Amino acid sequence: MSTHSNDAGSLVESSVDDGVLVLTLNSPANGNALDVAMTEALSDALEHINDRRDVHCVLLRSSSSRHFCTGGNVKDMQSGSDLMSGGVEDVRDRLHRSLHRITRALSALDVPSICAVNGAAVGAGCDLTLMCDIRVASTQAVFAESFLRLGLVSGIGGSWFLARIVGYAKALELTLTSEFIDADAALNLGIVSKIVPGDALDGEALSLAKRIAQNPPVALRMAKRLVREAADASLATTLEMAASMQAILLCGREHKDAVGRFLEQQAAKKRTHM
Q: What top-level branch of life does the organism fall under (predicted)?
């Protein structure tokens, strides 16, 4: 196991455990709100992951037992500070340069990403979970596309992800009602893959991340990219991508090593049953 942690006082703590980069939102008193400081810290943590060969999976979690992320800071909205200061063009430009850094970085990850949702994921916090590839929730998790309650829309791009996960009609219903849904409803909609008790969430999510991370790293990144691109591509384009990726992998050392290990394991099983 190779583990490295950064300063415990940072807004986003990070550590690497058996190929899993664990990123922990660490502003519990603020509900892990995506203010300027948190946005910059999370963006900085995400933007260089593709260059790290020691990372094969990302796990995003919260240090809070009540909130995963409560989205934008409502007090800042009222005061006109933080991301909301200035005129229309200033705010638009700031959204592109701040919050959208998170969206672009998460959507561009070559390695799979898992989100452990332990409490409230509201507004942009809900969108943050949707940007991850897989979501595991505790029984206390709640989700809400709650922007209309504040006379807003999703400014971080969550509508793009939500519609692809739950379908157009349900995405529109969740958006227009600002309805809060619990973990069971999220499971039924396909927003989360699994529900576990709160005290088991971190262990379950990390176990899943480690199972994914143990795969051959080049093939792992290609497998994620193929599924991601296939979601919006034609069959012909998908087949072309699949053929190109498979040819690269079949001719590579990673595949040959994996085949060797598989055959050795099969031989060992036969010997134990003789």
A: Bacteria
- The C-alpha atoms of residue 73 and residue 210 are separated, in whole angstroms, by 33
Q: 55, 19 in Cβ contact below 8 A?
A: yes
What is the secondary structure of the chain as a DSSP string? ----B--TTSSEEEEEETTEEEEEE--GGGTT---HHHHHHHHHHHTTGGG-TT-SEEEEEES-SSEEE--S-HHHHHHT-GGG-S-HHHHHHHHHHTHHHHHHHHHT-SS-EEEEE-SEEETHHHHHHHHSSEEEEETT-EEE--GGGGT---SSSHHHHHHHHH-HHHHHHHHHH--EEEHHHHHHHTS-SEEE-GGGHHHHHHHHHHHHHTS-HHHHHHHHHHHHHHTTS-HHHHHHHHHHHHHHHHTSHHHHHHHHHHHHHHHHHHHHT-
How long is the chain?
274
For tokens 């093939």, name the residue.
Answer: 219
Domains and CATH numbers, the chain: 12-213 (3.90.226.10), 217-272 (1.10.12)
Backbone angles phi, psi at 270, to 5 degrees: -65, -40
Retrieve residue 228's tokens. Answer: 């991601």
Of 55-59, 74-78, 93-97, 221-225, least confident by mean pLDDT is: 74-78
Q: Report the alpha-carbon distance of residue 126 to residue 113 in Å, rounded.
A: 15
Start-to-end Cα distance in the chain: 35
Tokens representing 117 are 């949702």
Q: Is the pLDDT of residue 2 over 50?
A: no
